[in-house]
Amino acid sequence: MERELAIRLRGAVKRYGPITAVDGLDLDVPIGTCVGLLGPNGAGKSTTMRLLTAQSIADEGEIEVLGLRLPGESKMARAQCGVTPQLDNLDTTLTVQQNLLVFAHLYRIPRGERRAAIERALEMAKLVDRRDSRVDKLSGGMRRRLLIARALVHRPRLVLLDEPTVGLDPQVRQELWALIDALRSEGTTILMSTHYIEEAQRLADTVMIMSHGKAVATGAPSELVREHAGRQVLEVYGPPARLAEVEAEAGSAGLRTRRTGTSISILGVDGANGYEIDGERRPANLEDVFVLLTGEEIA
Question: What pLDDT digit, counting tens, does each position of 270-288 carry?
Fold first, then answer.
């Protein structure tokens, strides 16, 4: 039995002059799941997010959000969504609580429910003690948490997170991952764009790898690794001439490889049919899949 979809894209295309930012994209986000759009800058992730909020209008294709067709019913869809933009657009002249109050008004939360809604958002974002702090006095991590809290104040059915941890250090990123995990545990549907492989592997039930506006692979992270990279990878180190020889030998044996600086990664050695070479074995991961399918290195 197919799950009901929170997001449905079919053949979505968005052009900016001669540039096609999104190129025939199909995307399904089942209700109650977290789907990650993984790709480098310029892959089309943020443009996809703008299409889903009707900030941009598709040149071709069909877009449905929570059963509503865009752009015609975008206002109704947006009222049921929470959106965290990639760029910080908080009002720095207001306090944390005042920023939330403004959005409680915008989302038409009844007057008698606003205080409870704001308290819940503050607690989820761990900003209760900073409610009276002006935004310009907050750290970068606190501001990102406030952006997410602002998107949650009206209890949306669907949350769109566009690069939620971009530019943050690893410790702060872990704090935001915990916040996103809390949303998932409540059954909130999440679509998250990211260029951090670890983030996609850690948080998403399903990952769509994007490159040049297209989807090059979609599936659960573990399934993508197993399908494209196998269970084990062999790392071979040496001078460039030796690495070129290893690359050719592996290719002749029907094995796929990727360059990793001063080494060659040979994928799928667990099914190598007798292929033997000295090197260090390690588990295959989503980064192997991404580089194999797109040829690009990302964070």
Answer: 865 667 788 899 999 999 9
Spatial distance between the Cα atoms of 273 and 253, rounded to a whole number of angstroms: 9
Residue 272 has a pLDDT of 59
pTM for the whole thing? 0.91
pLDDT digits (tens, 9 = 90+) for 203-216: 999 999 999 999 99
C-alpha distances (whole Å) from 274 to each of 167, 254, 271 are: 45, 12, 8
Q: Report the distance separating Cα 111 and Cα 66, nearest Å.
A: 26
DSSP conformation class of 134: B
In whole angstroms, give the CA distance from residue 45 to residue 18.
18
Query: Could you tell me if 243 and 258 are in contact, meaning their C-beta atoms sit under 8 angstroms apart?
Result: no
Among 19, 12, 17, which Cα is nearest to 212's?
Answer: 19
Do the beta carbons of residue 52 and residue 160 sit within 8 Å?
A: yes
- The pLDDT, as a whole number, for residue 118 is 98
pLDDT of residue 254: 86
CB 254 within 8 Å of CB 264:
no
What architecture is domain 5-220?
3-Layer(aba) Sandwich (3.40)
Q: Taking the domains of the chain in order of start, what are their residue ranges?
A: 5-220, 231-283
State the Cα–Cα distance between residues 4 and 1, nearest whole angstrom: 9
Q: What is the CATH number that goes with domain 231-283?
A: 3.30.70
